[in-house]
Specification:
Layout: H1 2-20, H2 26-37, H3 42-60, H4 67-86, H5 93-109, H6 126-140, H7 148-153, H8 158-182, H9 188-213, H10 217-238, H11 240-246
Helix pairs in contact: 1-2, 1-9, 2-3, 3-8, 3-9, 4-6, 4-8, 5-10
């Protein structure tokens, strides 16, 4: 019972942070899920939790969705998610290190949030970008808010970012969940873990929406960029043993 309560509380906190920070809440669940159920359980449990939490979020942010972006991003996310889930048992620790380094670099790209954009973005870019992110998410479970840089450069911020990202990610997580189930990676106990975390996250949506509405664009952008860098640092820290194997002389 304590495991379920911890997951519910963590889900509540993670999705408030996720809304205010523009995504990446699942990253906060990864260490706890890994501790409770093992590393191989992370991807399916996160998929269940995100699907439940996202269902509530889509209702609250439905009017903020940029449908032109969702139309490009959704197919790529779904295809990438299925492909990544099919290889979910593959060891890919080095990918987390690469993604982590990129996320840390965004704090310098955006001048700690003071710079609005760093490059121009075409709407069709969201198809290949979401395919890659969907694949990596299906493969390693959670990769942080890596796509926020694309949204910021497309001028999609605050409620529009949260609503649009949710509209794209929900079908992706549904596709991943179907793949995990078909491959036998989602057991009954893992399903319950995901439901516990998802219900906790579901309760946080309304509170997070109110906080986000009262936040300025500058503050939101600074928090998003800061959270991207923090997520990258966490990802690299989680793979410190991999780094030690790559650079044994560092000890």
């Amino acid at each position: 019972m304590m495991d379920y309560l911890l997951l519910a509380a963590s889900g509540f906190i993670a999705w408030i942070v996720s809304t205010i920070g523009g995504g990446g809440g699942a990253m906060l669940l990864v260490p706890l899920i890994g501790f409770i159920a093992g590393a191989q359980a992370v991807a399916p449990v996160v998929a269940v939790a995100t699907l439940i939490a996202g269902g509530g979020r889509i209702l609250i942010f439905f009017g903020d969705i940029e449908w032109r972006v969702a139309a490009w991003g959704l197919p790529g996310a779904a295809l990438g998610g299925v492909l990544g889930a099919a290889f979910s048992n593959t060891s890919a620790e080095w990918l987390q290190i690469v993604v982590g380094l990129f996320l840390i670099s965004t704090i310098f790209q955006y001048g700690f949030g003071r710079r609005e954009r760093t490059f121009a973005v075409a709407t069709w870019w969201f198809f290949p970008a979401q395919f890659v992110v969907g694949f990596l998410s299906g493969l390693i479970g959670a990769i942080g808010p890596i796509l926020n840089t694309l949204y910021l450069n497309a001028g999609i911020t605050k409620e529009k970012m949260v609503g649009t990202k949710t509209a794209i990610s929900l079908p992706m997580h549904l596709a991943k969940l179907g793949t995990y189930t078909a491959l036998g990676a989602l057991t009954g106990k893992l399903l319950l873990f995901g439901i516990a975390a998802g219900l906790g996250a579901l309760l946080s949506n309304w509170l997070a929406k109110r906080v986000l509405t009262n936040m300025s664009e500058l503050n939101f952008r600074a928090i998003v960029v800061g959270f991207m860098a923090l997520s990258g640092a966490v990802m690299i820290w989680e793979q410190r043993e991999t780094l030690l194997r790559i650079f044994p002389g560092s000890t």
